[in-house]
Amino acid sequence: MIETYENILQIAVLAGCILVTVIRSVERKSSLWTILTLFYGSWMLGDIYWLACLAFYGMTPQISVVSDLSWYASYIFLYMLLRRASPPDLTSGTKGLPLAGSIFALGMGLFFMHWGEILSNLIYAGLFGLLLYAAITRLQERRAVCLSVGILVFCFLEYGLWLSSCFWKSDTAANPYYWFDLLLTACLPFFLFATHKAVKE
After folding, report:
1. For the chain, which terminal residue's Cβ has fewer other Cβ atoms within 10 angstroms, N or C?
2. Contact 201, 142 (CB under 8 A)
3. 2-45 tens-digit pLDDT
4. Local confidence band at 153 (pLDDT 50, 70, 90 cut-offs)
């Protein structure tokens, strides 16, 4: 029941964010706002399918690939947003740290294979490795620093959520999964601010 309420809250937050990004896309004709709209929209489609399964069948999806495909797309749009805000030729790099982020993502992907599908975890590892690498390399780039920090926090919360789901199964407020999910929902509107900063720079 708690998961249902959290999904409803997250969908409501995403719908509000989409409304803002659509208005800004039309008014400012910036591709950054369009890409952010696609990020939010893809994420919301995955949530809607997940919520529909909870509402109609009383359980999480038995075929999670529908949600997974939507979330894969959202991570790709988030990566595209960062690349568009700060092209590779503007990045300053921070020595070995970006590679460490990718290695961490691969290690976590291998770890999660104990609980989930091999292919799905490899895809998530690849996408998060790409996100972490891109975000870390842009931490010193003024135009993309807020976006990079937002992505790093987003990735940390996603990993916290997934780790919690491996070790805690209770449907109570004491389950850290729900706290990480609430924090992730609270993090989503930050990308509005970060994109605004990137457009202004």
Report:
1. N
2. yes
3. 778 888 999 999 999 999 999 999 998 889 999 999 999 999 99
4. very high
**Torsion on CA atoms 51, 156, 112, 73, rounded to nearest 10:** 50
Average the pLDDT over 146-173 and give the result: 89
* Cα–Cα distance for residue pair 119/121, rounded to 1 Å: 5
Assign residue 95 a region: left if phi > 0, alpha if psi is -120 to 50, beta otherwise?
Answer: left
DSSP assignment of 13-78: HHHHHHHHHHHHHHHH--HHHHHHHHHHHHHHHHHHHHHHHHHHHSSS-SSTHHHHHHHHHHHHHH
* Residue 148 pLDDT greater than 90, yes or no: yes
CA dist., res. 124 & res. 78, Å (int)? 14
Tens digits of residue pLDDT in 103-136: 999 999 999 988 778 898 999 999 999 999 999 9
Q: What is the third-level CATH fold of 2-200?
A: Rhopdopsin 7-helix transmembrane proteins (1.20.1070)
Listed by start position, the domains of the chain span 2-200
